[in-house]
Amino acid sequence: RQNAEKFEFQAEVSRLMDILINSLYSNKDIFLRELISNAADAMDKLRFLSLSDRSILGKGEQAKLEVKISLDNDKKVLKIRDRGIGMTKQELVSNLGTIAKSGTSAFLEQMQKGGDINLIGQFGVGFYSVFLVADYVEVITKNNDDKQYIWESDAGGNFAISEDPTGEQLGRGTQINIHLKEETQEYAEEGKLKELVTRYSEFIEFPIYLYSSKEVEVEAAEEEADEAAADEDVSDAEDVADEAEDEEETEEEPAKPAKKETVWEWELLNDAKPIWLRSPSDVSEEEYTKFYHAISKSTDTPMTYSHFKAEGDVEFRSLLFVPPTAPPGFLDNYYTNKAGLRLYVRRVFISDEYEDLMPRYLGFVKGVVDSDTLPLSVSRETLQQHASLKTIKKKLVRKALDMLRKLAEDDKPEEEAEGVTESDAAAGSSQKYDTFWGQYGKAIKLGVIEDGANRQRLARLLRFHTSKYPDTWTSLEDYVSRMQEDQKQIYYLAGDKEAELAKSPFLEQLLEKDLEVIFLTDAVDEYMMSNLPEYDEKKFQNAAKDDLKLGGKKGKKEKRVREAFKGLTAWWKGLLGAEAEQVKLSTRLATSPCIVSTSKYGYSANMERIMRAQAL
Ligand code: ADP
Ligand code: MG
Question: What value does the CA radius of gyration of the chain take, rounded to a whole number of Å?
Fold first, then answer.
């Protein structure tokens, strides 16, 4: 366009677009999902703002928050129009030219490693997927605070912005004109578009319409009839005639010759009723999975989910999912992650950055919370201070932990179950939960440290390797069930590698007495144990500490030997000086002559090693 102002894409965006426009990637379908999801986001933002100022919505057609998809006459241009918040000129420059989030490099890196373009939305650069199918794109947009602008680009490293010479006919919102590439003309088929919307965008909470054509039979005499004749029922007129003989319209004799005619109409493609408002018994497994795809911007199947309604002083509905793999950066950005559950108040989307809805360690849980109790108050900040939010959080955590407990239990082989050997059952081998543990075990451990109120619930979710079952996961419940009759404590030993632990002199007596010892090799393990003094009323005992007592009263013989070696221990202590707290005789070893242990309240050698590594 003439008089357009030219801009260069940020270098990374430019690289990303190069890759996309030249992509031979076969699944280009995802662009539609990404654009519809942006349209829905833009309408969510508008609806949220309208809570404090209704006039923002506008009147009549303008106030209808919907997405409309259409094709132009020669079927080369696909148009997607929303009545969302739109973009000001400044926003066009920054949103569609630079990256606010650090998404692109991460995404490019993933793609170079053979990653999946499908995940583009997760990296906050979904818009650019339009260049999988387009060689030229126009974004026409109108925000209440600015004029109507056109952004355009053919992906050649730059884009242009100009004021729309045709005026401001959008009123408000955004229309994207996608000029399809020669080889992606398949997206100019109504059938294809319908299929994609139903497959990928079924759960968008705004109506999505496609301008579609329909062949209808028109009776010759009515040829001149107005649009009303092209009503949906017309195509079914014959069927209706057979069944509903008493209806007026069918009284005319049907003998007149019928003629075909094409009518165009806005066809609604989705049922915008939120899935979480439905009763769990009415929602199929497949629908849950599809909904998960919609909110997670992925295509995998969730590990498990929980759909419930909380009643009482605070009412809300929620649908929670555990992703099959930990979200990228979940542990790396543990203290800065913002992404949370999608919070709605009476169906109005408020935010998905509510750290307050879930504790950090459950940050991997995806889903929605919709509350009728919270006020539709004007700002996110005041909502944050609302007392019910705390109650909601508390209940959500319980429900999430319940869901995980069920995952572990459902998965556990029944002891009587056929084909399950006794040792399998004893070791509690459970594939699904094993996978969960592999992905999220660390989060559960952090939970033990951080969430005092749910510590015992979390403890039930822990899994360990032990001296008896070094290759399968043991729960504390399993451990306790295998304890010896007079065994009072749960023994553990922490170190670098399990193979080393198994040979440790600290274990000599324990193993000799056939006592099971839990092996801890994760850096956070020992710190976690210091927060978990007991389980099922059994105290934990670190085998590396010198208060390890293995039953039996101190015998006379022991006392005598102690006396006899007093000279040696005194000499030794003198030699080590302040390096050692004390040097004493002990009965805990079987073959090794001596060990360096830690006093009850001191840091174990392993803990010191970890602290040194972290330079604490
Ligand atoms: P994300 O949606 O994760 O932010 P995208 O690349 O899909 O990343 O979109 C980038 C940004 O462009 C959005 O955050 C939004 O600000 C803006 N945007 C895209 N599409 C629209 C639209 N239809 N209406 C308003 N703003 C939009
Ligand atoms: Mg997006």
Answer: 33
